[in-house]
Fold this protein.
Amino acid sequence: MSSLLPKAVRIVEVGARDGLQNEAAVETADKITLINALAAAGIKDIEAGAFVSPKWVPQMADSSEVISALNLPEVNLSALTPNLKGAEAADAVGIKEFAIFTAASEAFCQKNINCSIEQSLARFSEVMAFAKANNIRVRGYVSCVLGCPYEGDVDPHTVLAVAAKLLKMGCYEISLGDTIGIGTPAKVIELLTLLLKHIDKSKLAVHFHDTYGQALTNIYAALNLGIATVDSAVAGLGGCPYAKGASGNVATEDVVYLLQGLGIEHGIDLQRLAEAGWQITSALNKQPASKVSAALHAQ
Amino acid sequence: MSSLLPKAVRIVEVGARDGLQNEAAVETADKITLINALAAAGIKDIEAGAFVSPKWVPQMADSSEVISALNLPEVNLSALTPNLKGAEAADAVGIKEFAIFTAASEAFCQKNINCSIEQSLARFSEVMAFAKANNIRVRGYVSCVLGCPYEGDVDPHTVLAVAAKLLKMGCYEISLGDTIGIGTPAKVIELLTLLLKHIDKSKLAVHFHDTYGQALTNIYAALNLGIATVDSAVAGLGGCPYAKGASGNVATEDVVYLLQGLGIEHGIDLQRLAEAGWQITSALNKQPASKVSAALHAQ
């Protein structure tokens, strides 16, 4: 199998935001403990919160408080900022990376952010201008890149068009989300083969959910195409407690184990990472959704 | 990524043996229901029991009874037969495929079957002769092919030597077991690249446990090298209930989902397969260790 496996992979840890946003609420102190533990384990990119309406996402209402309590100059802390108000609030606590979020599916965009894809992009213009003026970089999430719960198949050309627009607007990187975890390597390869013809691999990240147990395999397929940035969540956080059978993000522990086995640098201490997962899942009163974590815990 | 992905894959369902052997005991009737349900889902190769001492493996003590109760002429039913006594008992209930079991690690062989690898092979001579005389085919399992709990790394050349001896003795196929689920694709590729220089791919199967969540990714790596026979267990059966954190075989549901996504033929009805898993895990009073199963259950 020919391969473009990268020498090093950058993990973007999304457990404290994309993960905890889809779990039962935890105390502010538990979030601070989690982020500090992730940083101590060696993670350099941590999505630390979301500046969104607490009416819609009550789990993120304390993001200012969480981020203000951190003192991690060596870590790139990012936060979801869907609008100017959120961007200003994130900037006020020193966030140097914003994240904006749209979809490659019109139906998903309508149901989740009540507008068309085009409108969602237009809405970000204020955030982008604010970011540029304040020397803050912006990451663009595209969800449903491998399939949509409403539309089914998603055309890779639609993903390309959305990704290209986000880059043109000034995003430094696009995180490609398999939001419903429906993809397999065939779709990953089809999508990335198209995207990589137009976008440099250094500007693409994969963000795969593990609903059908395929996330790690899909990540492996992406690594083989040279992708070197992977989003993941410690303990596989994000399995919504209210949706039976829902699985969260791919577990960072399992990704790190894979990278170790492949001889790819990642800079993360697996044991300390697993311990961070045990702490937060204990606060959530659940088991980590990571087999590596379970295996290490049994040792 | 260049690939030798096969057009079709043969699933060898090991849940009723390798799976249930490592679970709490279930009723004979539940085993019969399971195997019939697996066959009804379209599985053509089912490991149905083990003819071993009930002193060591009480969960398999009713294998004769289970297999006698089946009427599945279209299914290849196999059974573990470590010695002549077991082989005769399996033959008495009409088994047409035996399975024998050794390891690629001396330490593991000593701890698990109380002899050297060489001695384990010598012990099978009676079984092989009996099988030949009665027109029964024999499958050879080699465990610890990607690592050993006692020795650590296992030399692929040792695996090759053991596999070659089993083939020479008359086995039609070698099932390569990552018994402790420790491997990643790098080791899979290293091992198979060596083996495939000496053994035709049609004679090799992969049998991966999911202890570290890597099994499906490892299977994908093997498929890319042309391997077309995969062992798996419905609902990921085999997570020993007495060992905290232990994970069982890779779940057949997750493998089938992967194959479907890759456009590889498998002949299995995923919904009926998942239902077979729900039945047996209900009897075991546990949840299926399959994310595909959980996702289907939530629908």
Summary: Strands of chain B lie at 10-13, 45-50, 76-80, 97-103, 137-143, 173-178, 204-208, 229-232. The radius of gyration of chain B is 18 Å. Residues 2-298 of chain B form a domain with the TIM Barrel fold (CATH 3.20.20.70).
